[in-house]
Structure formats: C-alpha cells, structure tokens
Amino acid sequence: MAITDRAKEVLEKIKNLPLNKKLALAGVVFIVFAILLTLLLWLPKQDYQVLYSNLSAEDAGNVINKLKEKKIPYQVKDNAIYVPSQNVHELRLELASQGIPSGGGVGFEIFDKSQIGLTEFSQRVNYIRALQGELQRTIKQLQEVDHVRIHIAIPEKSIFTEKEDHPTASVVLKLKPGRALSREQVSSIVHLVSSSVEGLSPQYVTIVDQYGNLLSSPKDSTQLAEATQIEYKRNIEKNYEKNIQTMLENIVGKGKAIVRVSTEIDFSKVEKIEEKYDPDTIAIRNEQRLQEKTMAPQTGGIPGVLSNQPGQPQTATTQQNIQSQKQQENINYEVSKSISKIMQSTGQIKKISVAVLVDGTYKEEKGKKVYVPRSEEEIKKYQELVQASIGYNRERGDQVIVQSIPFEVIPEEKPGIDYISLATTALKYIVPLVIILLIILFVLKPLIELLKRPEEEKRKLEEIIISEEAVPTAVEERDIKEEIRQFAKTNPKKVISILREWITE
After folding, report:
1. Do the beta carbons of residue 244 and residue 389 sit within 8 Å?
2. C-beta separation of 130 from 168 below 8 A
3. Do residues 458 and 501 make contact, with C-beta atoms less than 8 angstroms apart?
4. CA–CA dist 251, 404 (Å, integer)
5. pLDDT tens sequence across 369-401
6. How many CB atoms lie within 10 A of CB 214?
7. DSSP characters over 32-67
8. I need a labelling partner for 105 at 20 to 30 A (CA). Which of 183, 281, 366, 452 fits?
9. Model confidence over 48-57: pLDDT tens digits?
10. What is the pTM for the complete model shown?
11. How many Cβ atoms are within 10 Å of 105's Cβ, its own excluded?
C-alpha cells in the first residue's frame, strides 16, 4: 500500500507541474531510454558459430539434448545448430567421443519398431533409406572421408514389360582437407556398394567428390580407354616436371624455378607385316629326274603278198632286236624371301614441349632490392640441361624454352600486436561511454537545472519573507522590501514565474 500511495503522490506532483517542467521531465525520460537502447545495441553481443549443420532429425535431437544437459545456450536456424564460439571446438571433441552425430541417415534400426498399416510402398522406401544409411556409416569409417551421401534407385519389377532396368547408385564423398582417394579405394567403394544392393552391377555405381570430380571409372569402354590415356599422359608430364624442377632448384635455389611439360602421345596400335625378296639369291625348290630304257625282239617272214596268202607254205623268218631310251629332268628354282611381323607399342612420345621459368638474382641499391636477370650463358646452360634430361629430338619437333623473369616476392608476416583489432575493440566500449557522458553534461544537467531553478528562486523569496516576519527588529538595519524590489528588477522573468506558481497554488 505504501508503494501505491507513493506512486500516486508522484503522479499527482507530475500533474501539478507546469508545462515547461512536464516537457523537461519527458525529455529526461526519453534521453535515458535512448541511452539504454544505445548501450544494448552497441555493446558486443555473444558471438555464435556453427556447431553442426545439415544433420538428420535424430542426430540434431541428440546434439540438442546434450547441450541442454550441459546448460550451454544454443540457437537453431537455417538447418544448423549455433553455440557460443568459445565452446565450438570443445563441444565437437566431446560429442565425437560419445559417437554424436552418428553419421546421418537411418539404418536398419528403422525396422526395430513394428509399424502396423504400412503400405508396400512405404516398406520399400524404408528399406532403401535403411540401406543407404548403413552404407553411409560403413564408408565414413575411411580415414579420408569426412561425409557421405548415397542415393540408390531400385526399379520396380513388372511382368507387363520385357525391358529390364538395372539398379543404380550414386555416391557423393566429402573428403577431409588435404586427403585424396587412390584408385584401389575408389574401386573398393564401388564393389562395396554393388555387393550390398541386389542386382546392382559395379558399372552402374557412380562416385563423385565434393568438387564434382568423377572418381569412379566410366561405364563406356571408349571413355575408359580415353580416361586411362589421359592419366598416362599426365603421369608422364608430371614425371618430367618433377625431374627437371628438382635438377634446376639444386642449381638456382629452392622455389626459384617453375617447369611445365606438355607431351603428345601416340596411342594408335600398328601391326606391320613385311615380305622381302632377294633376287641375287636363288634356291632350288624341287628337282625331278625321269629316265626310261626298253629292249624287245621281233620275228616274221619275207615281207610281201605271197607270204600272206592262205595255203602257202611257211618259209624261214628273221629275228631283229629293237632298243628305245627316254630321259626327263624337271628342276624348279625360287627367289629367296623373308617375312617379318612388326607390332608397334602404344604410348610412344611423339613430341615434348617444355617451358621453364627461372628467377633471377637480386642486389641492394640505395636500400632497395633490385632484380638482375640471368645471363644468356646461364639460360643456354639451363636449356642444354633440360634438353638432355628429356632426350631432346629435333626431328620429332621437340621444343624447350627457358626464360628468366622476376618472381613475386611475398613478405613473411611477422608476429606482432594487432593494433587495429585492439583499437576496434576499445572503440566499442569507449564510444558509448563518451556519448553517454556528453549527453549527461550537455543535455541532462541543463534539464535538471531547469527543473530545480524555479524551486530555488521560490525558496530564496520564501527565506526573505520568513526572515522579515521572524526578525522584525532588523528592519531598521536593512530594508527587506527594497531588496525584493531590487531582486525583481534584476530577475523579472524569475519573479513572474514564481508569482504564477503562487497563483496556481
């Protein structure tokens, strides 16, 4: 009740105040409120940073429960959890030791609770979700992998179509900074995913990193061959670059040589068959010899007509020996020839182009560092060394260019005091204090004096009157009326305001 009466008394006094005092009081209240608002907006607030982002609902709930248990303030916005910046690293280490977050994605624990009334489609979706989550957890165990997202597409089987669609899978890997996956690791991920999904062939598994680079092998054999050829070409170029740069840096200094190599590789397969004849060399191919010799006796009468007539007596006959001889020889000759089959190996270097940049030397002149390029003799020497290291062949069009140019010198940052950040931090606290002090001195103080001034003048007049009534014997010594008259002449406005207040009272 006392507080209520006091408040009523204060409100009554405020109502009885003249208009100028009410305006002054309103100004004081407004300025105080403005000062408080400025302090709230200007003073530095608690800095929040992202603890985790893009978490599954289950992982986000587990993280928030742990934050509530530890009574750490947090904010949730834009699918991310924010905590005070000084607690970020400590919380991540502590939550990681407890297995939170678990890796995102729901595993086969989704089937632990029986759900009545689920349709076949819902069961199918849950199965794919669980399969994706289990694969994500397995792949995330690799040291190089920071985060995994897997999408599996399993087509529905139908008896009304003869076309058979194959399951497919897409894997997106977010690798840790400075880490890379080898071909064997990529191949193992492909086979892990294909073996975990029924009917999924490794050729239908696609793996991409966070930069959009395709890590898995192309499905088409032509693309696979092209990818292999590009990788072979890059390996050769990197090999040359490493060897040349190491050699030059041992001469000109570490970091003072830049080497780039470009090669043209012949990947064509050539099969060549040569058949040569030597007309100067003749060889017998086959030889046949045939020789015949016959001897046969021959008897008979006297030749004529009478001896051949019937009824004539036989007469004595003569006998003669007949001899015949036949000889045949067949010889075939052939010119000698040689047949050779030549298979040219693929991946032969057709042309090499090398560009070398060499930093010059520096000398001090008038306190400044001046660049001095390499001499022509040095450039020629470096060029000959590079040509010898690559097996330079002018006939195939090899090219070696060596140039001396100044390299950009980046000054090392020296540890010291960051005066800019210190000044910025100090200004955050000093500027509001200075503004408040100026407002108090030049605004609040004059307003308070304005509120007190009529009371002081009124009190002075009252003291004069009271002193006149209380001490009548002193009238002879000083004329009070004359003093009031003089005061009214010197301060007419104050006297008028006091008289107005008396009239209102």
Report:
1. yes
2. no
3. yes
4. 14
5. 888 889 999 999 999 999 999 999 989 889 999
6. 13
7. HHHHHHHHHHHS----EEEEEES--HHHHHHHHHHH
8. 183
9. 888 877 677 7
10. 0.37
11. 21
